[in-house]
């Protein structure tokens, strides 16, 4: 029960007491004093109620303020976490940008160096390389020659694998892959360290060297004479094999005739059931088996000779087709040499140097 309710009950009790008849004066004074006390208590109670309501409102206000402060603290914590994550991301991006800037600076210095090299006139020397003074070649020519040799060896391995169906001895797929990666890195180093005009000049020089070397090699050989000699050698070998086959065929015929006569004699002896006939039959069977083995051996020898003769004939046909290809290639080399004689006057124009740097075949 609130204090105000208690005061209201006391005042009601006092009013009821005042309504009763009384003849004593002190009693009335006492009632008046009680009424004044009750009024005073009512005022105090009202003040207490006001103070309590004010305190409650202050408590509610403080609770609202506390919740707002806690929300601000949580928001500040979230903002702090977001700012930390953002700062970490910015630091990572800054590191990446610094790495990119360093790479760009290195590439810029590399391009400046290439630009300076491009202004220098490149001298390749003579058309035919001098192996005794290979160290005097320009660096770009040595690098391009190395790249071309790597490419040639790689393509040669692939060609041998495609023709024979197996990799060359001492070579595996891992080695081929490593060779290709090495050639690729070499080409990247050349492109990144030498001017394009120097690289093109080196390729043209190597192409001219190879053309001159092929012309020199083809001028030293007499292809028709060599092919003709190989052809006559093949025919001679075929003739020898045929001559060797004739006695074997004659022996086979004689063995077949002897075997037939022995079979007839065996049938004649088998008609007689004596002991001498049985012994003769056994001897004849042994001779028949031996002659049959001899016949089979002669037949196999004849078949081998026929196969060898067929192989020689196929080799002869292959030599004839190879001769035709060599003649066609020689004509192509001569045509390319006449077309490449003016390479020195065609500065700045690219030359067809073969697929993927594969011109350096020394």
Summarize the structure in short.
The protein is mainly alpha-helical. The chain contains seven helices and no strands.
Number of strands: 0
Biggest sheet features: none
Q: Helix- and strand-based class? A: mainly alpha
What is the CA-atom radius of gyration, in angstroms?
59 Å
Give the terminus-to-terminus CA distance: 118 Å
Strand content: under 5%
* Estimated helix fraction: over 70%
Shape call:
elongated
Summed up, the helix count is: 7
SSE pattern, N- to C-terminal:
HHHHHHH
Q: What do the pLDDT scores average to?
A: 76
Low-confidence segments: 127-135, 340-362
GO biological process, one term: spindle assembly
Pfam family, one: HAUS5
Organism: Chelonia mydas (Green sea-turtle)
Protein name: HAUS augmin-like complex subunit 5
Question: Can you describe what's shown?
Answer:
With 362 residues, the chain is mostly helical. Among the domains are: 3-15 and 31-91; 223-344. The chain is built from seven helices and no strands. The chain has helices spanning 3-18, 25-118, 139-164, 173-193, 196-220, 223-270, 275-340. Helix 1 runs antiparallel to helix 2, helix 3 crosses helix 5 and helix 5 (196-220) packs across helix 7. The protein is elongated, with a radius of gyration of 59 Å. The two termini are 118 Å apart. The model is unreliable at 127-135 and 340-362 (pLDDT under 50).
């Amino acid at each position: 029960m609130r204090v105000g309710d208690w005061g209201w009950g006391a005042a009601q009790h006092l009013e009821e007491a005042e309504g009763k008849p009384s003849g004593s004066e002190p009693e009335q004074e006492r009632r008046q004093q009680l009424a004044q006390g009750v009024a005073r208590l009512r005022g105090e109670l009202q003040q207490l109620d006001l103070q309590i309501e004010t305190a409650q409102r202050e408590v509610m206000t403080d609770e609202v303020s506390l919740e707002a402060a806690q929300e601000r603290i949580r928001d500040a914590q979230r903002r702090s976490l977001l700012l930390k994550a953002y700062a970490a991301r910015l630091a990572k991006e800054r590191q990446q940008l610094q790495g990119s800037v360093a790479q760009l600076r290195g590439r810029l210095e590399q391009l400046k160096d290439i630009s300076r090299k491009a202004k220098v006139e490149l001298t390749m020397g003579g058309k035919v390389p001098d192996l005794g003074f290979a160290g005097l070649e320009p660096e770009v020519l040595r690098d391009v020659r190395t790249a071309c040799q790597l490419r040639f060896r790689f393509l040669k391995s692939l060609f041998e694998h495609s023709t024979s169906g197996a990799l060359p001895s001492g070579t595996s797929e891992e080695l081929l892959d490593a060779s290709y990666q090495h050639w690729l890195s070499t080409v990247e180093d050349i492109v990144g360290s030498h001017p394009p005009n120097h690289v093109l000049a080196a390729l043209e020089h190597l192409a001219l060297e190879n053309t001159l070397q092929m012309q020199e090699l083809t001028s030293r050989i007499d292809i028709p004479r060599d092919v003709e000699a190989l052809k006559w050698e093949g025919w001679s070998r075929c003739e020898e094999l045929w001559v060797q086959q004739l006695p074997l065929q004659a022996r086979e015929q004689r063995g077949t005739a002897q075997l037939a006569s022995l079979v007839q004699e065996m049938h004649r002896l088998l008609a007689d059931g004596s002991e001498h006939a049985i012994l003769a039959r056994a001897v004849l069977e042994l001779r028949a088996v031996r002659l049959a083995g001899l016949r089979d051996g002669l037949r196999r020898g004849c078949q081998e000779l026929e196969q060898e003769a067929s192989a020689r004939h196929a080799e002869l046909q292959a030599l004839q087709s190879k001769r035709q290809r060599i003649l066609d290639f020689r004509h192509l080399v001569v045509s390319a040499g006449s077309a490449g004689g003016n390479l020195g006057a065609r500065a700045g124009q690219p030359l067809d140097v073969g697929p993927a740097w594969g011109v350096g075949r020394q």
